[in-house]
Design goal:
- The protein is an alpha+beta fold.
- It has 15 helices and six strands.
- It has a four-stranded antiparallel β-sheet with strand order 1-2-3-4. The chain has a two-stranded antiparallel sheet with strand order 5-6.
- β3 (25-31) and β4 (37-40) form a beta hairpin.
- α9 packs antiparallel against α10 and α10 (183-191) crosses α11.
- The radius of gyration is 20 Å and the shape is globular.
- The structure holds a DNA duplex.
Length: 295
DNA sequence: GAGCAGGTTTCCT
DNA sequence: AGGAAACCTGCT
C-alpha cells in the first residue's frame, strides 16, 4: 500500500490497518489472523465499496500467474525480487485520479504527493464520508484557478494541472479512448498533455489502465537497471526500451518487482546512491570542456 | 541552510 | 539529438 502506486492510503488503527480513498469509496484493509485480507467500509457505503473493491484491486487478475510468465528463469535479479515480493499486485485505479496524482508527483517524494492529493480533495473534491473527500474530477479542476491550485502546494505543477484540465475538457471520451487504445497509442496521447512526460504516462497506464507493457523509468529504476543490468550511463528512454524488450508485454509488472526491491534497499543504506552519483559526476566532468565556471 | 526530490519543459549548443 | 537549467515546495 505504501509502494507508490496510489497516494491516498494511510495507516490507521495503530498501524494495524490501511485506509484508502478512491472514486466515491473509502475502505479499510487489514491482514487477518489466517493471513487473509479483510476489508471493511462505513455501513452506508458498504454496498458501493464492495462493488468497487474487486475492480480496484484487480481481483480478476492472477498476478502470481502473470509473474510466472516473466523471464525469471533466465534472469536471476528478477527471480530474487519475485521471490521476495510474492504478493505484489498492480492496482486498477480510476484513470483520472491516477493522472492527477502522478501529474503532481514530479520531483516529489511520496509524503508530499500525499499532501497535495489531500489538499486537492479537501478543496475541490466531493464528500465521500465524514470529512473524507474524493479527488476532484477533471471537470472541476478545469474550473479552478491556477492560484487555487498553487494554494494546494502544487507549485509549478499547478499550471500543468490547469492546462491539462482544459485539454481534457476538449476530449470528453478520453478515458474510454485510452482504455481501448494500444499501449503505444495511449502512451503518446497522455505524454502530449502538459506536464505529462514518458514516466508519468507510463505510471498512469500501469496503475490506472492495466496496460502492463508500460515500464516507468524513474531514478530508482534507472539506478536499479544501471547496477543490476549493467546499463550504466543509459538514459531513461533507452532504459524504458530495454525494459519492454527484455521483460516483454508484462514489463510493468517486472518493473514493480524491481522497484520494490530497490526502494527497500535504498531505505536501508544510501551507499549505492552515493556511488552512482559519483559515477555521474565523473561522466559529466569528462564530457564537459571547461567553459567558464560561472557562479 | 543549501541542496535535493519517484520529472517535464524550455532553452541552449 | 542531447545536455543543462529552470520550475515550486517541503523535507533533510
Amino acid at each position: 500500500m505504501g509502494g507508490g502506486q496510489a497516494f491516498r492510503w494511510r495507516r490507521v488503527e495503530k498501524g494495524e490497518a490501511w485506509q484508502g480513498v478512491w472514486g466515491g469509496a473509502v475502505a479499510r484493509v487489514r491482514v487477518g489472523r489466517a493471513g487473509e485480507v479483510e476489508w471493511s467500509a462505513p455501513l452506508e457505503l458498504e454496498e458501493r465499496v464492495g462493488a468497487a473493491m474487486g475492480d480496484y484491486f484487480a481481483a480478476d487478475t492472477d498476478f502470481a500467474a502473470l509473474a510466472d510468465q516473466l523471464p525469471w528463469r533466465t534472469d536471476d535479479v528478477l527471480k530474487k525480487r519475485i521471490q521476495t515480493w510474492g504478493g505484489l499486485r498492480l492496482l486498477r485505479q480510476p484513470l483520472g485520479e491516477a493522472l492527477l496524482a502522478f501529474l503532481c508527483s514530479s520531483a516529489k517524494r511520496i509524503p508530499h504527493i500525499m499532501q497535495m492529493c489531500e489538499a486537492l480533495a479537501g478543496r475541490f473534491g466531493e464528500p465521500v464520508w465524514g470529512s473524507v473527500r474524493a479527488l476532484p474530477t477533471w471537470a472541476r479542476l478545469a474550473e479552478a484557478h491556477e492560484s487555487e491550485l498553487r494554494a494546494c502546494g502544487l507549485g509549478y505543477r499547478a499550471r500543468f494541472v490547469k492546462l491539462t484540465a482544459e485539454k481534457l475538457k476538449e476530449t470528453p471520451g478520453w478515458e474510454a479512448m485510452i482504455r481501448g487504445a494500444s499501449y503505444a497509442e495511449a502512451h503518446d496521447w497522455l505524454a502530449a498533455l502538459p506536464g505529462v512526460g514518458p514516466k508519468i504516462a507510463d505510471c498512469v497506464l500501469l496503475f490506472g489502465a492495466a496496460k502492463y507493457a508500460a515500464f516507468p523509468v524513474d531514478t530508482w529504476i534507472l539506478r536499479a537497471m544501471a547496477e543490476r543490468y549493467g546499463l550504466r550511463g543509459w538514459r531513461p528512454a533507452q532504459v524504458a526500451q530495454f525494459g519492454r524488450a527484455h521483460f516483454g508485454p508484462l514489463a510493468g509488472l517486472a518493473q514493480q518487482f524491481l522497484f520494490s526491491g530497490e526502494r527497500k534497499e535504498g531505505k536501508m543504506g544510501r551507499k549505492g546512491r552515493k556511488e552512482d552519483k559519483e559515477a555521474m559526476e565523473q561522466k559529466r566532468a569528462k564530457g564537459t570542456k571547461e567553459r567558464g565556471v560561472g557562479r
